[in-house]
Amino acid sequence: MPGVHKMRIDGTEVTFSDGETILEVAQRHQRDIPTLCYDPRLEPFGGCRLCIVELAGARNPVASCTTKATSDMVIRTSTDAIEAYRRTLLEMVISENREVDVHSLRGYASHELASLRDKYEIYASNIDGTKSGRSKADDNPFILRDYDLCISCYRCVRVCAEQEGDHAINVMNRGFHTQITTEFDGLLKDSACTFCGQCIQTCPTGALADKKALRTAGTADTVPEAQIDKTRTICPYCGVGCSVDILTHEEKIVGIHPAMDGPANQGALCVKGQFAYDFVQHPDRLKAPLVRGADGELHETSWDDALDIAAAGFKNVHAKHGKYSVYGIASGRAPSEAAYLMQKFIRAGFGTNYIDNCSRA
User: Do 213 and 308 meet the contact criterion of CB atoms below 8 Å apart?
Assistant: First the structure.
């Protein structure tokens, strides 16, 4: 069949298509190859080298994330030598970080380094020396820039450029002086950053973290990770329909994770979808309908009474000023069924086309 080829991975013959990398083929056939700089939404980078595999006929191991699969390749993914390489590389990465265990509220991928540490059981190391990364105090309510935990995987820089097109952050210096920065090493709010949170959610160590979630939840002692529930739903803010996972503790929202498998967003969110959830449990949120009484003050009432009063108001305006006195603006946060009823209310109820939607503006 054109475009379909065969190769061998760990003794098993598998098929692949044109353009696939060794890592993509291996993952599709349930081979566990560790990665740190890899995000399937981004162009392969080949920086961490944890994904190296043995390729028959090659002098040295190759990075599976950047090496394209070719016909009749013979790959071994986890020989003793390869696993020894990976363990040493991982030890070197861990030795530079202030800590490995971080709270899951820091971000969607923040446990990747800790998970690999546990897999390879690296709980003590003889590697010690200069630390890389320097945390940046940043006056913004959303993103913590804790670069003491940075491993220079550049996933944050790449997601900002490749997925968002913002190019708000970049890399300066080299070696142990490497630093993730903005133009002129300034604050995020003075850069092209839109605070979408993509850099947070791709970071594998928690170096970039959800400052609001950590502030909302308090400390790890007050919100144990085992007591955080995750509920899949749809972002209410516009008509795109981004899938999100609501993180809750004792029925209180403590954070939002974008759904990486969301059909509309594939892990992306805007600043509102990522951070604007305070209204759900805000003390000023209305919990019952209010009507203005003869005293000029608002008073709680039942839904039936409130709807009757609203209907009477529409009728009075229509009778006094005519059908063109009523104009409808539908909410972009409403489902399709509600939007349909809204336009039906204006077009059939008042006989005009004076209807618009806030999402269009």
Answer: no
- Provide the token pair at 162: 């490749």
Residue 11 maps to which CATH number?
3.10.20.740
225: confidence class by pLDDT, cuts 50, 70, 90 = confident
Query: Could you tell me if 51 and 97 lie in one domain?
Result: no
For the beta carbon of residue 161, count every other beta carbon within 10 angstroms.
17
Strands (E), the chain: 4-9, 12-17, 52-55, 62-63, 74-76, 143-145, 170-172, 179-181, 208-210, 229-234, 243-249, 252-258, 290-292, 298-300, 328-330, 355-357
118-132, 212-226, 252-266: range with lowest mean pLDDT: 212-226
Q: Are 136 and 147 in contact (CB under 8 A)?
A: yes
Q: Which residues sit opposite 48 in a β-bridge?
A: none
Residue 85 resides in a domain = no
User: Which uninterrupted H or E stretch holds 100?
Assistant: none
| Boundary (domain end) residue, out of 55, 78, 101 | 78
Q: What is the pLDDT of residues 275-323, one digit of tens each?
A: 999 989 999 999 999 999 999 999 999 999 999 999 999 999 999 999 9
**Would the CA dihedral through 137, 204, 124, 60 be positive or negative?**
negative
In a domain, 232, yes or no: yes
Do 37 and 109 fall into the same domain? no
* Contact criterion met (CB below 8 Å) for 15 and 5: yes
Which residues, other chains included, contact 44 with Cβ-Cβ below 8 Å and sequence gap of 6+?
A: 21, 23, 38, 63, 65, 66
Beta bridge partners of 116: none
pLDDT tens-digit profile of 77-122?
999 999 999 999 999 999 888 899 999 999 999 999 999 999 999 9
Residue 228 falls within a domain, yes or no?
yes
Q: Examine the domain organization and report whether 274 and 213 are in the same domain.
A: yes
Q: Which of 43, 78, 113 is the last residue of a domain?
A: 78
Domain that holds residue 24: 4-78
